[in-house]
Amino acid sequence: MASGDPTPGGGGASALIGALGAALCSMVANLTSGKKKYAEVQADIDDILARTEVLRSTLLNLIDRDAEVFAPLAEAYGIPKDAPGRADTLEAALNAACSVPMEILRTAAALTGVIEQLAVKGSKLAVSDVGVAASACRCAMEGAVMNVYINTRLMQNREAATALNREAEVLLSDGVNRCTAVYRKITDELRSMS
């Protein structure tokens, strides 16, 4: 990522950060699982473990997919402006380039429900890790949305661009608010214990 190559870039970084958040959720669920104190929530913890495995795996796969959809976009930018078919090629590439950060955003948004559950049902010994997962999830969403906007701003189909932006804004606003609420609640609890 530190090289001069444009990929992996911000989209891949957003997916990786989201995967780290999902991995932390898995860790907290694993630390909670099988503990007598949390026996009444074991079924929920089992569900969380299954869900976080899917979310983590999806986000890790999206790192490579983000780089894959960028390559045709980079090629489209290199087509001379007066070349026949350039506009259509560029539009298709922009749509593809939007698809992956939208999927990162949707996947990270799905992680917020897991984070909220773990804040209540997870082992209290690992509650700070839930707070870190909330912070990572928020970062993943904020990064992914940037990669949506940088592509939708150039799309010729303004109706499609506006629809993508609206969906992204709703997912971002809801997800960031929920992650921030969990993060603040945990931070306040930890601070009051010291």
Which descriptors apply to this entry?
Four Helix Bundle (Hemerythrin (Met), subunit A), 194 residues, mainly alpha, single chain
Structure description:
With 194 residues, this protein is an all-alpha fold. It has one domain: Four Helix Bundle (Hemerythrin (Met), subunit A) (Up-down Bundle). The protein contains five helices and no strands. It has helices spanning 10-32, 42-77, 86-121, 127-152, 158-193. Helix 2 packs antiparallel against helix 3. The chain is elongated and about 70 Å long. The termini are far apart. The mean pLDDT is 95.
Structural class: mainly alpha
User: What quaternary form is this?
Assistant: single chain
- Write the element-wise H/E pattern from the N-terminal end onward: HHHHH
Quick check: average pLDDT?
Answer: 95
Number of domains: 1
Number of strands: 0
CATH topology title: Four Helix Bundle (Hemerythrin (Met), subunit A)
Shape: elongated
Tell me which CATH architecture applies here. Up-down Bundle
Q: Quickly count the helices.
A: 5
Per-chain topology:
Blueprint (H helix, E strand, L loop, with lengths): L9 H23 L9 H36 L8 H36 L5 H26 L5 H36 L1
Helix pairs in contact: 1-2, 1-3, 1-4, 2-3, 3-4, 3-5, 4-5
What is this entry, summarized?
Helix content is 81%, strand content 0%.
